[in-house]
Design a protein that fits this description.
- This protein is α+β, with helices and mostly antiparallel strands.
- The chain has one domain.
- It has an 8-stranded mixed β-sheet.
- α5 runs parallel beside α6.
- The longest helix has 23 residues.
- The N and C termini lie far apart (55 Å).
């Protein structure tokens, strides 16, 4: 009877609530879903939620980063956990919102990974990403002629660009994703 009540209560959840529940029960922070997209978030698979159709696994970071961008591109969110092998698993949180193109691809769930350290990194990065999304939602981007791009990956390196300038420090492939998010957030707040 108790199991039936739990299943019924889960079935009555929105897909956004299901995503929050999945992340919480997995010991993970949950990122801010932009307000205008939150009701469009759909569960596509157990660990895949998005506001757009998915034609390529979110694990393929390059596919999403290199998609053409421009005024015709629709805003979207992809939130997933995917990977392959025994240690190549990551949480993906991709947000295209106005002039922002932010792609977080953060290691979590591999056999040899440290779940506690990975969860702390994800929590830190999601907290900074939440601030970026919040600022972008209230940002007048009329003076920003091209997208701001933020790519943070524990596997493939992290960098960001704005106004045509790429910001990659020395050893960019080993830069802490949270540091890149901090730099991008500072830039955003200084260009209001």
């Amino acid at each position: 009877m108790v199991a039936r009540l739990r299943m019924t209560s889960k079935m009555g959840m929105t897909d956004l609530e299901k995503a929050k529940h999945l992340f919480k029960t997995s010991g993970l922070a949950f990122p801010k879903i932009p307000e205008k997209l939150a009701t469009e978030l759909k569960k596509r698979d157990r660990w895949l939620f998005s506001t757009r159709e998915i034609q390529m696994s979110p694990y393929n970071l390059d596919f999403y980063v290199n998609e053409p961008s421009g005024p015709q591109e629709e805003d979207y969110v992809v939130l997933a956990h995917s990977g392959h092998g025994i240690n190549s698993y990551a949480i993906q949180y991709y947000v295209v919102l106005g002039f922002l193109r932010m792609f977080l691809h953060l290691g979590w769930g591999g056999v040899y990974s440290n779940a506690e350290a990975d969860s702390a990194r994800i929590r830190s990065c999601f907290s900074l990403a939440d601030e970026i999304v919040k600022d972008v939602e209230s940002f007048d981007a009329s003076h920003i002629p091209e997208p701001m791009s933020i790519v943070c990956s524990t596997f493939y390196g992290s960098h960001w660009s704005a106004l045509g300038e790429m910001h990659r420090g020395k050893d960019w492939d080993r830069i802490d994703p949270a540091k890149v998010l901090e730099e991008a957030l500072d830039w955003l707040r200084n260009h209001r």
